[in-house]
UniProtKB/TrEMBL annotation:
GO terms for molecular function: carboxylic ester hydrolase activity; serine-type endopeptidase activity. This is Serine aminopeptidase S33 domain-containing protein. Residues 191-386 form the Serine aminopeptidase S33 domain. It comes from Flammeovirga pacifica. One of its GO terms (biological process) is proteolysis. InterPro entries: AB_hydrolase_Est10, AB_hydrolase_fold, Hydrolase_4, Pept_S9_AS. The keyword Hydrolase applies. It comes from the Bacteria. The keyword Lyase does not apply. Keywords: Hydrolase.
């Protein structure tokens, strides 16, 4: 699920093409905001004329945010975060100084950067596996002929040359690379390593328009991402080291919905694992998420109830296809907040709620797919997940699979875990990057044990 937070807070970002080896290094700048100063650190790496980077916000305890897009056309450096309407444009003066402007939601702040070699490189999280690996780990590419794009990823398997049970990892919403890099964590790398060490092959890939994969992420919908996974399935069926009768899906959050879609219609899928997967109508997922986050954050009850009414009506406008949607939403929120809302806030809300992915998600009803899934399925949620609430969604999965007569499914709530399956305190997204744990060992063992049991049963 996308993380919706306030100005310059946590956010998802990815990569793009650029030039300029001299830009590599840590760059530090200070935003002079109305409520105080905020240091921003861009850490840029360059390889083969490709710029990538991460962003630190020390005052918020956040490190290792992957940057969405970095481009350099001499003398100008562009850093873009389109999901939040954020852009940094700087004039590169020399190898150590950039003069520029930080923009968001119609507001601009002068922010000059200096290369600061004293800034330490973010430490890897303790669970992040390092080579050499005791298994085969190969960079791969596969083609989505329907979209006309080449997708890049990593395929891992044990060293013995035979046909293995294989899973495809499907990430949640927001641009994601093959490791599901988020706030310094690489959960898909950790999960793939654990599964491969336990005799299960794994395919994970950069989403379209992310990392080394072709395509346009910003214009893509859930159905487009589903199509990419189907291309991965076709690729696996041609491999001599994959058992084509034991191909499964592991989907996290929105990726779990994609797994449901495919399992409902594709007979080649042997099993599915849903990690914190929505099962309710998209509109209800978003309302529950907003309510739970506000309650835990201490928002007054009256404000929580008021926000529920306001956003429920806005989501209904989307479901009812009111057009032009962006204009209707803009006028609606101006009226609801009696014009006491800044252009910055208004632009962020309208831009986020009118893009194709969001419109599709509000209307999405996973129960339709659950009704048709007859193959083995394992659904897990953390008890402290505030983005996809465990009880409501697991109940829906249980009810729908019971009604359709699925003979082999399991739903389980794991105590003390958040949306990313980390052991946590509050479960709020602000904790994700601060925690050292990437994935709970309990979660990892449950997943590998279940796959082992299922694939042994299937001959």
């Amino acid at each position: 699920m996308k993380i919706k937070l306030s100005f310059i807070a946590l956010f998802f970002i990815t990569y793009s093409f650029s030039l300029g080896q001299n830009l590599a290094g840590p760059w530090k700048g200070t935003l002079n905001l109305p409520n105080g100063k905020l240091d921003i650190i861009f850490k840029i790496s360059a390889k083969d004329n490709d710029l990538k980077g991460i962003m630190d916000i020390p005052a918020q305890g956040v490190k290792g945010l992957p940057i969405h897009e970095i481009k350099y056309h001499s003398p100008f450096l562009h850093i873009k975060l389109p999901n939040l309407g954020i852009e940094y444009v700087g004039n590169v003066i020399d190898d150590d100084h950039i003069e520029g402007t930080f923009k968001q939601g119609g507001q601009s702040f002068t922010m000059n950067l200096e290369k600061n070699l004293d800034e330490e490189t973010p430490m890897s999280k303790p669970q992040e596996p390092k080579p050499p690996f005791p298994y085969v780990n190969k960079a791969i590419e596969f083609y989505n002929k329907d979209a006309g794009i080449l997708l890049s990823g990593t395929f891992s398997r044990p060293t013995d040359l035979k046909r293995y049970p294989t899973v495809i990892l499907i990430s949640g919403s927001g641009p994601s690379d093959r490791d599901q890099n988020i706030l310094g964590h690489k959960p898909f790398l950790v999960l793939a390593d654990h599964l491969t060490r336990n005799g299960i092959a794994v395919l994970r890939f950069d989403e379209r328009g992310v990392g080394s994969s072709q395509g346009d992420f910003k214009s893509a919908t859930t159905l487009d991402f589903k199509n990419d996974v189907e291309a991965a399935i076709s690729f696996l069926k041609l491999r001599t080291d994959v058992d084509p009768t034991k191909i499964g899906l592991i989907g996290h959050s929105e990726g779990g919905v994609i797994a449901q879609m495919i399992a409902a219609e594709n007979k080649d899928i042997a099993f599915s694992i849903l990690m914190a997967s929505p099962a309710l109508l998209g509109k209800d997922i978003l309302l529950h998420q907003k309510q739970q986050m506000e309650i835990i954050s201490g928002v007054p009850d009256e404000a929580v109830a008021r926000n529920q009414l306001i956003f429920e009506e806005a989501y209904d406008m989307i479901i009812n296809n009111e057009q032009p949607l962006d204009e209707r939403l803009r006028e609606y929120f101006k009226h609801q907040y009696h014009n006491n809302i800044s252009n910055q806030q208004l632009n962020a809300i309208v831009t986020g709620m009118s893009n194709p992915w969001f419109v599709g998600f509000v209307k999405l009803n996973p129960a339709i797919y659950l009704q048709s899934i007859k193959t083995p399925l394992y659904a897990l949620n953390g008890s402290k997940d505030v983005q996809v609430l465990a009880d409501e969604n697991l109940k829906m999965i249980n009810d729908e699979l019971t009604k359709n007569g699925n003979p082999n499914f399991k739903v389980e709530k794991l105590e003390g875990l958040n949306h990313l399956f980390q052991e946590c305190e509050s479960g709020l997204p602000a904790e994700y990057g601060v925690l050292n744990q990437t994935l709970s060992p309990v979660f990892l063992e449950k997943v590998s044990d279940w796959i082992e049991d299922i694939t042994k049963m299937k001959h």
